[in-house]
Design goal:
The longest helix has 35 residues, at 33-67. By secondary structure, this protein is mostly helical. The protein is built from 10 helices and no strands. It has helices at 3-22, 33-67, 72-91, 111-138, 144-172, 177-186, 190-200, 202-207, 209-232, 237-261. It has one domain (3-24, 32-261).
């Protein structure tokens, strides 16, 4: 199976999970949006941390050692991934969930648009990670198809609450349920686009696999540490405890998936 086909199938699955999560706006009211958003962010953070470690960094280290490129390639790719998200964070105006003050350049864009841009930034490294693993799986490298399935499953599962965390705040801000569902769904479209874009350079990806794997890991971990975990713990003690449990639950689930499928 070609790398493009693998990328389309796996990223299509993760996008479908975003749509599924966004559809929950038809089931929940806005009164529970803050706690639900916190738990969703915490669960997503746990999934992304585990996916970054078990699905990206550890395979990057193994590939670096087997190819003779050295661990510098892993560290270098990790740093570049962090710098990439920092650059996006500072050049694109956006508003994080549960935040009041926008980040990035000053703009006249509305709160909902800024929130949408923030979620788009979140999803870029996830799509890239799927694309990198698809390119590796097509060449039977870095864990092969099992690693791709585990990563796509983990990202897909965390996309369900993430889609919910987007659509419900939109509904709470006055949008109709249908519009909130559409915007929540569309927030995940960058994942298939990012995966396909990476696969277009698949020959380069295979040659520099440790760099690309660690790049995606660095980008994902920066998003988790700088945004998802702080936002999931910005309420009272009880809610913070629940958010912490959500983070650990997400980490545990992805770790089990990696062992079972990787």
């Amino acid at each position: 199976m070609s790398s493009l086909t693998l990328a389309l199938l796996s990223s299509g699955f993760t996008f479908f999970c975003t749509v599924l999560g966004a559809a929950l706006v038809f089931c929940f009211g806005s009164s529970k949006k803050i706690l639900l958003t916190q738990l969703s962010l915490g669960f997503s953070a746990g999934i992304m941390i585990s996916a970054s470690v078990f699905g990206l960094l550890i395979p990057a280290q193994k590939e670096a050692l087997s190819s003779g490129s050295g661990l510098f390639s892993v560290a270098g790719g990790f740093v570049l991934g962090v710098l990439f998200i920092i650059a996006l964070d500072r050049t694109l105006p956006h508003l994080h969930m549960l935040a009041r003050i926008p980040e990035g350049p000053k703009t006249a864009l509305g709160k909902r648009t800024l929130l949408f841009l923030a979620i788009t930034i979140h999803n870029i490294p996830e799509g890239m990670a799927v694309g990198v693993c698809a390119a590796a799986a097509a060449q039977d490298l870095s864990g092969g198809l099992g690693a791709l399935i585990a990563l796509a499953a983990g990202i897909g599962i965390q996309n369900i609450p993430e889609g919910t965390a987007v659509s419900i705040p939109y509904y709470a801000e006055g949008a109709t349920r249908l519009k909130a569902f559409a915007l929540g769904s569309f927030s995940g479209i960058v994942e298939p686009l990012g995966a396909v874009l990476v696969v277009m350079f698949s020959s380069l990806v295979v040659k520099l696999l440790p760099w690309f794997l660690s790049f995606a890991a660095g980008a994902m971990l920066y998003v988790v540490i700088e945004e998802l975990i702080p936002e999931s713990h910005n309420m009272g003690n009880k809610e913070s405890d629940l958010a912490t449990v959500a983070v650990l639950s997400g980490f545990l689930l992805m770790m089990v998936l990696d062992v079972a499928l990787g």
